[in-house]
Design a protein that fits this description.
283 residues; alpha/beta; eight-stranded mixed sheet; 12 helices; 8 strands; 49% helix; 17% strand
Amino acid sequence: MKRHDLADLIQQRQWEMINAFKTKYIELLKQYYYVGGMPEVLAHFAANQDFSEVRQIQRQILDSYEQDFSKHAPANVVPRIRMVWNAVPAQLSKESRKFIYGLIKQGARAKEFELALAWLIDCGLIHKVNRISKPALPLKAYEDMGAFKLYLLDIGLLGAMANLDVKTLLEGNLIFTGFKGALTEQYVLQQLVTDRDVSIFYGSSDKSNGEIDLLIQYKNELVPIEVKAAENLQAKSLRAFAEKNKPKMAIRTSMSDFREESWLTNLPLYAMNELTAYLESKS
C-alpha cells in the first residue's frame, strides 16, 4: 500500500485496516522521529532516503541557529540563550520533565534566564508548556508560570542535539529506553501545537508523585493525555486523575492499537494528528 493510502486510512479512522498495517505505521513513525519535519531535511530525505544526509543537514540547521543567537540577540544574553537551548535534551530526558534552572548552572535562578527563555520562545525555537495548579476550566486561569516543560521546535533536531544514532532508534536498544520517553512526548507535543484551538498544559500536584504528561483544553472540554513510548498500557496517573476529576474523555497514546474503554481511549501514536478530529466526533 502506498504512503498516501496509509495516510488516508488514518484520516478516515479506519481502525481495522490501520491495525492490519500496524508494522508499517510504526516503521514510518520511527523514521519521522529521526528525520523530523524541517522542510529542507524532508525534501532531501524524500529524494534520497539517506539518513546520514539527514543528520548532516540537521547539524547545519543547528549551527545556523547558534550563529543567529550571536547575530540577533543582545550580546549579554547570548551565553544564557545557549545554556537554555543546549539544556533542553537533558531536561526532557529526566523522569520528571519539569525544567529546572539549577541543572543548567548550580545556584541558577529564573530571573537570570528570563530574557534568554523569552527570546527562544519568541523566535519559535522552543515550546513552553506550563503546569496548571488546578484541573478546571478555563485551564489558562490556573496556569503556574513558574513550573514548565520545554520542548524543541522539531523532533529531528532534538535527536540531532542528543546525537541519537539512527540504528539505535530504528532497531531499538535498551540504552535508548530512557530517552525514548522524551522523544515520544516531543512528538506528541508537536502534533498538538499545530491546532490553534488547543490550549496545552501539563498537570502535577505538590502532594502527589503522579503527573499528567499533557493536559489540553479543546473547546469546552478538559482532556488529560498520557504518553507511552511503547505498548505499555498501564496508566496509573491517568486513572487516578480520571477517577478524581471525571473528565468526559481521557487519552492514552501508545504503540498499541486503537481501543475505547469506559474511561479512556487508546489512540495509536501514529494517529495522534487525528486527536482533535476524534474529540470533535465525540462532542
